[in-house]
């Protein structure tokens, strides 16, 4: 049920009715309410479940020994490829948070948690790369990611390299470079 709900909410938004949700998931309303207290709980649980799939697709594997810059740019390369899919509807976490409007909604809390996981990934990698302010750089990278995702949706077209190029430029400005041996070479430059 959660997989069907995640797909349906992503394509049509979380404002759809319970009847349509139950029909798509192949369950009765009664069954849904036996499993979940409310539609809001279904939205939050389905978004949480989808997050696990997205992390597997987006993030490099834990044992991936490539330099931090390459690992960061891989996330943007994934976004570029995803934006070329005709079914791309942007970041499901941003879309859900915008649609539910209420920051106290259970799905908004799930969205914040998973957006923070992206920022945390960037922070770990930028710290490994020796960035002078890895937390700020991680937040900036997340903003580029979210902005690029929104741009692809608004323009209804693939990103065409702009997300990777912009992220790479920000990393370069912050001193997250790779020397000729593939090792990070940081500068003491603050990005603001």
TrEMBL record:
DNA-binding region, residue intervals: 17-36
InterPro entries hit by this protein: Homeodomain-like_sf, HTH_TetR, Tet_transcr_reg_TetR-rel_C_sf
Gene3D superfamilies for the chain: Tetracycline Repressor, domain 2
Organism of derivation: Pseudofrankia asymbiotica
Regions annotated as coiled coil: none
Keywords per UniProt: DNA-binding, Transcription, Transcription regulation
Protein name: TetR family transcriptional regulator
Molecular function GO terms recorded: DNA binding
Top-rank taxon, per record: Bacteria
Residue ranges of every copy of the HTH tetR-type domain listed in the record: 1-54
